[in-house]
Amino acid sequence: MQSIMARKQRDNPDENRQLPDDELQEIVDSVIGSEVGESISDRTDDVDFTVEELLSASAKMVVETCMDIRRGENVLIVCDPTTGEIGQALHEATIKKSDRVLLIVMPKAKHHGEEPPTPVANLMRQQQVVLAPTKYSLTHTRAVRQAVRDGARVATMPGITIDMFTHGGMAADFNNIKKRISNLGPYFRRRRIVNVKSEQGTDITFEVNWRDWKLDDNGICNRPRMLTNLPAGKAFIMPREGTMNGVLIIDGSWDSTLLDEEIELQIENGMVIDVKGGQIAANIRQEFGEVAKKLRSKERENVWTVAEFGFGMNDQARMGGNVLEDEKRLGTCYFSIGDNSTLGGSSAVGIHIPGVLTKPSVWLDDTQVLEDGEFILDI
């Protein structure tokens, strides 16, 4: 594990210069000032920004808009060997706001939900802000839960790449996303039965506690004890344990794989009892089986808990084979399997993997929310 406190020098002195704030703001404005549905990749055809400039602009937006980092705050940036350039960009943006910033490069984890090394977990508890661009998710770990309980505001970025950090969902107007998610909130009130269907064959029903909908995954994480993913943009909830039954067809992406073959999950009383879908289904059974072996015998079946359900609410997010962004795409929905302890559930199993449905139809009691991937409510 490495601690990096100084900026990495580059061979080209022109690339090594710090961009003035007015230049960075121009880039930020061009990144987030688009019409709905237009991606940054469409816009940058006309604007010749370097990768370093785009990284700096996105990092500035994270530091100033998303996290609102203030002078004198303790900030920890946790990355791994796959995300070092993003960690470095965040470090450079953060030191303009606070002189109490630490960048840690930890070993790459083996799967989502694996605990970070103990020294990293201990450092996280001492911070006011934690930024975690890593290959595998730290969101559903004891380390993050404890840091949040101790007062930190935390943004995790599992699977983030340079392209994702500078394009697509990260180019969204997060204030508009916040408004869109807030407008969805009233439709959740007093509705406790969720039904999801799709042309691919999904037909699944479950109960929720309507008061437990999470409506703060909007990219604005500026108060103590807040936790978000970046890119952000979803409304989500834990299905009531033991209530989900039916067939779930994952047709968009699973974890970091854009699917060319659907995955069929048979759900009974809130647990996955069968997985079908060729080689990827075999890989899923193997991965969850290996995690189960590390648990006590009475807890092993909990790895198959359907832990989370949510709607994508980010109009700039793309479907590209990385669930961090895929699950945020406006009009999709997703189900996660595994650990639900961060949402108040009883399955603390150290693995949490989502799968995305591209064009679902969703009902809350008798109110239809989505039809074939299109919101039919006025949000």
What profile does the largest beta sheet have? 8 strands, antiparallel
Shape: globular
Instruction: Specify the structural class.
Output: alpha+beta
Query: What Rg do the Cα atoms give?
Result: 20 Å
* Percentage of residues in helical conformation: 10-25%
Distance between the termini: 45 Å
- Provide the domain count: 2
Which consecutive residue ranges, at least 5 long each, have pLDDT under 50? 4-18, 30-46
Across the major sheet, the strand order is: 15-14-11-7-6-19-20-21
Tally of helical segments: 10
Q: How large is the share of residues in beta strands? A: 25-35%
Please report the total strand number as a whole number.
Answer: 21
Mean pLDDT: 89
Give a nutshell description of this structure:
By secondary structure, the chain is α+β, with helices and mostly antiparallel strands.
Topology record:
Blueprint lengths: L1 E3 L16 H12 L7 H4 L7 H16 L8 E5 L4 H11 L6 E5 L12 H7 L4 E6 L7 H8 L3 E6 L3 H5 L7 H11 L8 E5 L5 E5 L6 E4 L9 E3 L4 E4 L7 E6 L2 E2 L2 E2 L4 E6 L2 E6 L1 H16 L12 E7 L10 H4 L6 E6 L13 E6 L3 E4 L2 E5 L2 E2 L4
Parallel strand pairs: 2-3, 2-4, 4-5, 5-9
Antiparallel strand pairs: 1-3, 6-7, 6-19, 7-11, 8-10, 10-16, 11-14, 12-13, 12-18, 14-15, 16-17, 17-18, 19-20, 20-21
Helix pairs in contact: 1-3, 3-4, 5-6
Task: Give an overview of the whole structure.
With 379 residues, this protein is of the alpha+beta class. It folds into two domains: 2-168, Rossmann fold, CATH 3.40.50; 173-213 and 232-375, no CATH class. Helix content is 25%, strand content 26%. The chain contains ten helices and 21 strands. The strands form three sheets. Strands 15-14-11-7-6-19-20-21 form an eight-stranded antiparallel β-sheet, with helices on one face. A seven-stranded antiparallel β-sheet has the order 8-10-16-17-18-12-13, with helices on one face. It has a six-stranded mixed β-sheet with strand order 1-3-2-4-5-9, with helices on both faces. Strand 4 (129-134), helix 6 and strand 5 form a beta-alpha-beta unit. The protein is globular and about 55 Å long. Mean pLDDT is 89; it is low at 4-18 and 30-46.
